[in-house]
Amino acid sequence: MRGDRGIPAATRLEVYAHAYFERIRGCLADDFAALAALLGPEAFHDLARLHLMAHPPRHFSLRYVGERLPGFLGGHPAAGIFRARWPAAADLAALEWALADVFDAPDMASLAPESLAELAPEAWAELRLEPVAALRLLELSWPVHRLRRAFDAGEPLEALAPDPTQICVWRREEQVFHRALAPLEAVCLADLGRGASFGDLCERVAGETGEAEAVSRLLAWLRRWLDDALLAALETRRPGA
User: What backbone torsions phi and psi does residue 31 show, to the nearest 5 degrees?
Assistant: First the structure.
């Protein structure tokens, strides 16, 4: 078996550096598969190289190698050529990083619907609902969930028009899901993460839809959140406690 004796040190370093880069590029292609398909292999190769130059890995695990790619695409001067040709690329990268990120998020038992059925009517106003750790809410300028769904279905990636879009990304058991949210639903889920009570949400929704529709709309969302296993725990607080 031949060794590397006789091969100049500079050549060996170049080989090792190339192998290291190819490993990183492969990790990025796995985490940002739809983005790689959108850009094509040559442009994605260039993107990976520029990103590596701007943001060398800071962690021993390559699991985090793409953590800063959405921000790089969205604002770094070196990524301007990608923004000009693929203006939705940064948002697509943000979605795909969220898909990868929630997969490794801590496990939390989801809230069972029967737990809410046992609540006294007077307890609902102070009810606190906690989102699971494996949940991300994205506020984007492009409906890039369509690109990811087309990629997953093996369909051509459609051309997009800019359209403000709120997307929910979450893990249920070992599967990762995503869907677009109505703007008001997205606000309510974000409020839950900041500790808002069910009464607070009712007031917010009533301010947008009127009191007659607020409770029915919020209960419909609550049923969907429970079905999707987005809620981890609840807390009730007595008035004045």
Answer: -75, -25
Delimit the domains of the chain by residue range. Answer: 1-86, 107-241
Nearest to 138 by CA among 104, 173, 96: 96
* 30 vs 220: CA distance, rounded Å: 36
What does the alpha-carbon distance between residue 148 and residue 104 come to, in Å, rounded to a whole number? 19
CATH class of 107-241: alpha beta
Residue 240 to residues 126, 168, 237: CA-CA distances in angstroms? 10, 34, 8
Q: Percent of the chain scored above 70 by pLDDT?
A: 87
- The Cα-based distances of 177 to 140, 141, 167, 227 in angstroms read 17, 20, 10, 13
**Residue 127: how many CB atoms within 10 A of its CB?**
18
- Across 19-42, average pLDDT: 91
Tally the residues of the chain. 241
- Burial grade of 173 (CB within 10 A; 0-12, 13-18, 19 or more): exposed
105, 134 in Cβ contact below 8 A?
yes
